[in-house]
From TrEMBL:
Signal peptide boundaries: none
Protein name as annotated: MFS transporter
Transmembrane segments: 12-31, 51-74, 81-99, 105-131, 143-164, 210-226, 246-270, 277-297, 303-327, 339-358, 364-386
Keyword Ligase on entry: no
Keyword Iron-sulfur: no
Domain of life according to the entry: Bacteria
Entry keywords, A to Z: Membrane, Transmembrane, Transmembrane helix
Length: 413
């Protein structure tokens, strides 16, 4: 199937959206299945919780490192190759891990599968930037991701947390992504991308974009630490402070997923009509307040409600980060490495969160997280404002539609 590179951002259509979202889900699925992966490893190779946890952490780090390494390729003509190569490796490696009786083969296969997932994460992240209205695309992706993950998290335990089911699910979603990969949007042809000229020469605009992109990636990695530290320590915090039971924690986690789905739908409907900077700043401030409040809640119901409200704001802010990165450059040079950067920060949070909680106590722990989130809102909002201004300038200087190259029918189907 021929697949030309569009010269501008393309409208959201079912084939291209399905391919992009499916590949993103395949690349990120191990993150969501990590508790099940730990259980499967404990049962299959007799590893204790700590050893199994380290294996899964290494798998996620492999995804993050490879995702960062191949992200520049995904901003150019190699995006399809990276996506298909990563997904094919994921199918093969996770499939072997699902069926191998050998401990060494299983662990090595999981690490290779994690590396393959990194290619999927980078390629799908870069493809987000190909679509018009990045805000609506980010919301729709969040809705698809959380909807699918909710079903997977419910179905896999019913089948049993054995390697064939847990690692087999990872292989299956890589296979689905591979089947849909022909519809993945490719990077635009460089000379056809409208250049921003307002406020200086194209070279000056490129330098500003580079600074903004690097600042966004750094802020996103640090924000991942502040958010996932509370997520990782939520059970410990709730138990020691509010007497949250396992059932209560399960309700909080389920409610958080529902809140994220609602937030995704709202962002999908609203799109970019209210801008990015203001809602992103307000939500980051609100999330900081809610994080701080969880450190002082002693009633189980109040703690659960605060936890759900905080996680809902987290989900929407996460999608705004994706939208801002996608809006910065149509070739996906910033949205490509975004999820890999998040994984690096997120993979360290169990250790960081446990250390902060042990040394600072409940209130000190949430206070530090809240202050850090508030501080990170400043660069995040600044980059969001820059991206919105850049999009408006690009629209004003874009050539007439009839002078632009035509994308292949597979993009517009």
């Amino acid at each position: 199937m021929s697949h030309s590179s569009p010269g501008v951002r393309i409208p959201l259509r079912l084939p291209t959206a399905s391919a992009t979202f499916a590949i993103a889900i395949a690349g990120y699925l191990a993150v969501n299945l990590s508790p099940y992966m730990i259980t499967a490893l404990q049962g299959a190779i007799g590893a204790d919780f700590v050893a199994a946890g380290w294996i899964v952490t290494l798998v996620l780090l492999a995804t993050a490192i490879i995702g960062l390494a191949v992200a520049p390729l995904c901003a150019g003509r190699s995006r399809m190759l990276v996506a298909r190569g990563g997904l094919a490796l994921g199918v093969l490696a996770f499939g072997i891990a699902a069926m191998s009786p050998s401990t060494e083969v299983m662990i090595a296969s999981l690490l290779l599968g994690g590396a393959g997932a990194g290619g999927a994460v980078a390629a799908s992240g870069a493809a987000f930037a190909a679509f018009a209205n990045p805000d609506r695309v980010a919301g729709l992706n969040g809705l698809a991701n959380r909807g699918v993950i909710t079903v997977v998290l419910a179905v896999v335990p019913m089948l049993g947390l054995a390697p064939i089911n847990v690692f087999g699910a990872l292989a299956l979603f890589c296979l689905i992504g591979l089947a849909l990969s022909p519809w993945l949007p490719q990077a635009p042809i460089t000379q056809d991308v409208p250049q921003r000229t307002r406020g200086g020469s194209p070279r000056t605009a490129d330098r500003r974009e580079t600074r903004a992109g690097l600042l966004l990636l750094a802020a996103f990695a640090l924000w991942a630490v502040t958010e996932d530290s509370l997520w990782a320590m939520g059970g410990v915090l709730g138990d020691s402070q509010a007497g949250i039971t396992a059932q209560g924690l399960g309700f909080a986690l389920s409610g958080s997923t529902a809140g994220g789905l609602i937030g995704s739908m709202v962002l999908m409907i609203v799109g970019g009509r209210i801008g990015r900077a203001v809602p992103m700043g307000i939500l980051m401030l609100l999330g900081s307040i809610l994080k701080l409040a969880t450190g002082f809640a002693t009633d189980p119901v109040v703690f659960i409600l605060l936890f759900i409200a905080w996680n809902t704001t987290y989900a929407v802010v996460f999608m705004y980060f994706v939208a801002v990165a996608a809006a910065l450059a149509a070739d996906g040079r910033w949205s490509g490495p975004l999820l890999a950067v998040y994984l690096i920060g997120s993979s360290l949070t169990p250790v960081i969160g446990a250390g902060l909680l042990a040394s600072l106590g409940n209130q000190g722990f949430t206070l530090v997280l809240a202050i850090a989130s508030m501080a990170l809102a400043v660069p995040a909002v600044a980059v969001a404002l820059f991206s919105s201004r850049g999009n408006r300038a690009a629209e004003e200087t874009a050539p007439p539609a009839e002078s632009l190259p035509i994308a292949s029918k597979s993009l517009e189907a």
